[in-house]
Amino acid sequence: MLSRVPKEVIASILAATTAYIGSTALHLPPWAIFVAWAGTYLAGGPTGPVMKKMWATMPIGSTYALIIIVLVQRLGGILGSGYWGPATVQALVILVVNTALMYTARIRAVNLVPGMFFGFASMFATFYGGFGWNTANPLVAWIAVIAMNALGPVYAWVAEWLSTPRNADRLEQP
User: How far is CA 103 from CA 50, 61, 65, 107, 157, in A?
Assistant: First the structure.
């Protein structure tokens, strides 16, 4: 049996690769990989069923967040321009849209609520953090965050695969 590379080393090497993802002209949010990577472990680890649930639910959460962002942009000033008007509109939009998100979790195929909130929170952080190749466009942030969140379960799977001991005699066979 070959000794395995420690998970700490593998995770650090994989984490370092995200620097190349975030440093592109697309200005993608590499931290969204970490959110989904950690979430994959919280949901039970990088197994097929867990990864499928994560991939199904994170974009749903991101989509609901996109709806909130667009509605707040369009309706934010209808109750005035001071503090209370826009804050009240935002609170009401979040109340209604988040309620719809929570009801969506009643659908068995997408009932991983934490996965939805990983996508939800990642979308807000991506848009309001100024990530994406057009920082004023919420649709660009949505595309960027879905792509980066999708890599999280992949990173979790690769970390497990690389840190699992291999049998030496299997490696020698063609």
Answer: 21, 12, 15, 8, 30
pLDDT tens sequence across 46-85: 999 999 999 999 999 999 999 999 999 999 889 998 999 9
The 3-state secondary structure of the chain reads: CCCCCCHHHHHHHHHHHHHHHHCCCCCCCCHHHHHHHHHHHHCCCCCHHHHHHHHHHHHHHHHHHHHHHHHHHHHCCCCCCCCHHHHHHHHHHHHHHHHHHHHHCCCHHHCCHHHHHHHHHHHHHHHHCCCCCCCCCHHHHHHHHHHHHHHHHHHHHHHHHHHCCCCHHHHHCC
Six token digits for residue 137 = 């466009």
Q: Which amino acid is at 128?
A: Y
